[in-house]
UniProtKB/TrEMBL annotation, chain A:
The keyword Metal-binding applies. It comes from Halorubrum yunnanense. GO terms for molecular function: acetolactate synthase activity; magnesium ion binding; thiamine pyrophosphate binding. Its EC number is 2.2.1.6. Gene3D superfamilies: 3.40.50.970, TPP-binding domain. This is Acetolactate synthase. The lineage of its organism: Archaea, Methanobacteriati, Methanobacteriota, Stenosarchaea group, Halobacteria. Residues 423-576 form the Thiamine pyrophosphate enzyme TPP-binding domain. InterPro entries: Acetolactate_synth_lsu (IPR012846), AHAS_TPP (IPR039368), DHS-like_NAD/FAD-binding_dom (IPR029035), THDP-binding (IPR029061), Thiamin_PyroP_enz_cen_dom (IPR012000), Thiamin_PyroP_enz_TPP-bd_dom (IPR012001), TPP_enz (IPR045229), TPP_enzyme_TPP-bd (IPR011766).
TrEMBL record, chain B:
It comes from Halorubrum yunnanense. SUPFAM superfamilies: ACT-like (SSF55021). This is Acetolactate synthase small subunit. Coiled coil: none annotated. Keywords: Amino-acid biosynthesis, Branched-chain amino acid biosynthesis, Transferase. Belongs to the acetolactate synthase small subunit family.
């Protein structure tokens, strides 16, 4: 997206503003007299000063005409920039960077196609409440509305998928706007924000250094829940016979995993998580029932169906979790802890709404609950369900390699702090089911939006975040499907260029496998547009990118290939040719009762 | 979880790839051996479509009702688009939406008439409150003062009769031509409905309505936390 009307074309290498040409010479123009730290001379420098002041360390993006002034200001900034192959890669990388680091992700794109290429990732961050700031170039203010070259109404397009977006309206204020947008993204319930930056605003002169950044008034809510509501909820928990904790992604975002773990263990309450909540509670704990929902464990779905007191923290009761609302935890008094009042009773009625920060409210509950509920029989029942409905899969020797086995092999070969990223589809479900997660911020996936192609760019973002945190020894493993991999694998070029140590495991079944599974279950096996009759050789493709490429077809090749790829210092891709007929189970059919999950195909 | 199960590891060494590497069978119940949906216990309770337990709590079926929602907002570009986009995106049933300045520079009031269940009205208010330019929002209590302005153009076949009806409903004639008469009506919904019924006999050619706008009665602030003042006095709530 580097072509603009207002700037030299790519075939004009002498152009003074050609980005690559400036790299080995002194920056031109105003930058010859680089001002003292903190002082700024243009809107773009004010933008960068605001980002630095807010603590941003890394940006992901793609250059282009309208954003060039900001990139020029980044040239002499402390902020690292990772140039991605595609803006969608930049936004997913920024999203994953935020998930792993706990700081807002930052991505940049130019106007028009640059901005619209961000849209999927912004929507993804919005659905998963991920803190992120997107900065987009825009045509000069006087051209806005004239359908100028590379003009898109970015504010209009992203309005429904951002927490808030801003149209920068002057060089003097743009730094403050960017600082506010950065802080707003992580205030209260996190979410993506965007600042659209017309080129004149970033190019204009200003000497105004942005002030201290703060979220707008009224957007940083009271972290404590109403005391009376806490007391009432505490009584409900004390009196429960079948209490169950449901920890959502909000527990992780609030850095409340430790608090939540202590709460559950102190009162002996079994725990299930949502998918975004994976890692909030260790799945190898006796109290853990793993995660609930459409492809959650049978025992989690039994427990959530039979509980009489559901303590739900930081979850928005998505339909993939609840199944049919009529049969969701139908006998449970619901204690709902959330920072966003709008989530209270949106999908599931909250008998005890506790609006506040997850960690703080759990502390309040811990102080208020006087005695553990008498739940010994219930815990035994949960343990029985774990015996009765284990996550297992058959490995008949006349069938091809099972994808679940690959996930288990990676889990076995890596440490607990390994970061797993995924695309979307069957492989994502197996990666969440057959890996035992113990730590928060180790599961990085696209949940609410279900964005195929999230895997490779999110592995890039996760790796950069871990490296920035000094955790270069952590492994980053991306489980991808063949379909998802084909959507964003160009970001391998970034991983190679930046020498990022990631391992991509493509669970290749030459299908859009989840669609194929649904076609078999609900469309009489009519495989319309799900059957990939020809697939590239991903191992060779990886080699062409400059990564390590391996191919695995059989069980006995799995462990050596996993070891080689993990040991390889740089990006590696293993193309696992897995059983194309394998299905994700258990499964709650869309809108069905969680307790009536199908453990096997013939139960659907 | 099966990730901890040592028996699912591949055999340690060689043999032909097709069999020696195949993992040992998992001794735990295979999916096909696990009890099916009908063999399990199921609770008898249910929730209604709003996620409220029907049993054992009261069977609460929410009827939709009309509500007037008033929001005090920052008068910044795009604020109306944010509000209207929210309403359409979340499928709220809305009858009218009006917007106009308040006594404070930089603030506007948005008045919406919606037809929703109580939980739906609650959601509208909460979702509106999340919009950054929205300073405060709430339902205007049932006895709010509401009014609408209507312009209607009728056939001028019997001007005297048109004028008589207009007078009866405190209307004003804004334009009288050889073929049409344009009348302005104001009032609450019931009054407007009655007037329109009366004008129908003349043949209504065109109609333009502003939609209802509303203020709370007496000292009650129209939007929660709003401090009623006179023009020129700040009316912002305390942050």
């Amino acid at each position: 997206m580097s072509d603009t009307a207002a700037h030299p074309r790519e075939d004009d290498p002498e152009g003074s503003e050609e980005p690559t040409e400036g790299a080995d010479g002194a920056p031109d123009g105003d930058l010859d007299e680089t001002p003292a730290a903190g002082a700024v001379s243009t809107g773009a420098e004010s933008v960068v000063a605001a980002l630095e002041a807010a603590g941003a360390e890394t940006a992901f993006g793609v250059q282009g005409g309208a954003i060039m002034p900001v990139y020029d200001a980044l040239y002499s900034s402390s902020i690292d920039h990772v140039t991605m192959a595609h803006e969608q890669g930049a936004v997913h990388a920024a999203d994953a960077y935020g998930v792993v680091s706990g700081e807002p992700g930052l991505c940049l794109a130019t106007s028009g196609p640059g901005a619209t290429n961000l849209v999927t990732g912004i929507a993804d961050a919005d659905m998963d409440s991920d803190a992120m700031l997107a900065l987009t170039g825009q045509v000069p203010t006087e051209f806005v509305g004239n359908d100028a070259f590379q003009e898109t109404d970015t504010i209009g397009v992203t309005r429904p998928i951002t927490k808030h977006n801003y149209f920068a309206n002057g060089a003097d204020s743009v730094g403050d706007t960017v600082g506010e947008a950065f802080e707003l993204s992580r205030a209260g319930r996190p979410g993506p924000t965007l600042v659209d930056l017309p080129k004149d605003v970033t190019q204009d002169e200003t000497d105004r250094t942005p002030g201290p950044a703060a979220p707008p008034a009224g957007t940083d809510p009271d972290p404590n829940a109403d005391a009376d509501a806490v007391e009432a909820a505490a009584r409900a928990i004390e009196e429960a016979e079948r209490p169950l904790c449901l920890f959502g992604g909000g527990v992780i975002k609030a850095e409340a995993s430790d608090t939540a773990r202590t709460f559950a263990r102190t009162y002996g309450i079994p725990v299930t998580t949502t998918m975004p909540g994976i890692g909030s509670f260790p799945e190898d704990d006796d109290l853990s029932l793993s995660w609930a929902g459409m492809h959650g464990t049978g025992y989690a779905n039994m427990a959530i169906t039979h509980t009489d007191c559901l303590i739900a923290v930081g979850t928005r009761f998505d339909d993939r979790l609840t199944g049919g609302i009529d049969t969701f935890a139908p006998e449970a008094e619901v204690v709902h802890v959330d920072i966003d009042p709008a989530e209270i009773s949106k999908n599931v009625h909250a008998d005890h709404p506790l609006i506040g920060d997850a960690g703080r409210v759990i502390d309040q509950l811990t102080a208020a609950v006087r005695a553990a509920p008498d739940a010994e029989a219930w815990r035994e029942r949960c343990a029985e369900w774990k015996e009765t409905y284990p996550l297992t899969y058959a490995t008949p020797d006349d069938e091809p390699l099972k994808p679940q086995f690959v996930v288990e092999a990676f889990d076995e070969a890596t440490d607990d702090d390994t970061i797993v990223t995924t695309g979307v589809g069957q492989h994502q479900m197996w990666a969440s089911q057959f890996w035992t997660y113990t730590d928060p911020r180790t599961w990085v996936s696209s949940h609410g939006l279900g964005t195929m192609g999230y895997g490779v760019p999110s592995a890039v973002g996760a790796r950069v975040a871990a490296d920035n945190m000094g955790e270069t020894d952590r492994d980053v493993v991306c489980f991808d499907g063949d379909g998802s991999f084909l959507m964003t694998m160009q970001e391998l070029s970034v991983a190679v260029r930046e020498d990022l140590d990631i391992t991509v495991a493509v669970l290749n079944n030459e299908y859009i496998g989840m669609v194929r599974q649904w076609q078999d279950a609900f469309y009489e096996g009519r495989h319309m547009a799900s059957d990939y009759t020809w697939m590239p050789e991903f191992d060779k493709l990886a080699e062409a990118f400059g990564a390590l490429g391996l191919r695995v077809d059989d069980y006995d090749e799995v462990a050596p290939a996993v070891e080689e790829a993990l040991d390889y210092d740089g990006p590696a891709v293993i193309d696992f040719h897995v059983d194309p007929e394998e299905n994700v189970l258990p499964m709650v059919p869309s809108g069905g009762a969680n307790g009536k999950f199908a453990a096997a195909e013939d139960q659907l | 979880m099966s990730g901890d199960s040592p028996d699912s590891r591949p055999a340690a060494d060689g043999g032909s790839p097709s069999d020696a590497g195949v993992p040992e069978p998992d001794p735990r119940p295979a999916p096909s051996e696990q009890p099916g949906p009908e063999e399990r216990d199921h609770p008898t309770g249910r929730r209604n479509l709003e996620g409220i337990r029907i049993d054992p709590v009261v069977e609460a079926e929410h009827e939709s009702r009309r509500a007037v929602i008033s929001a005090l907002v920052e008068d910044e570009p795009g604020v109306l688009a944010r509000v209207s986009g929210l309403v359409s995106r979340r499928q709220f049933n809305i009858e009218s939406l009006t917007v106009g300045p308040t006594t404070v520079d930089g603030h506007s009031r948005i008045t919406m008439v919606v037809e929703e269940t109580d939980p739906g009205i609650d959601q509208i208010e909460k979702q509106m409150a999340k919009l950054k330019p929205v300073i405060s929002v709430g339902e205007v209590s049932g006895n709010a003062v509401t009014a609408e302005l209507v312009l209607l153009k009728v056939e001028a076949d019997d001007p005297a009769a048109v004028h008589a009806v207009a007078e009866m409903y405190d209307g004003r004639t804004l334009d009288a031509g050889p073929r049409t008469i344009t009348v302005q009506l104001t009032g609450d919904e019931a009054r407007i409905d009655d007037a329109l019924d009366a004008f129908r006999q003349f043949g209504i050619i065109e109609i333009a309505r502003t939609g209802q706008t509303a203020l709370a009665r007496g000292d009650t602030p129209t939007a929660p936390g709003e401090k009623p003042g006179t023009a020129g006095e700040p009316t912002t709530h305390d942050d």
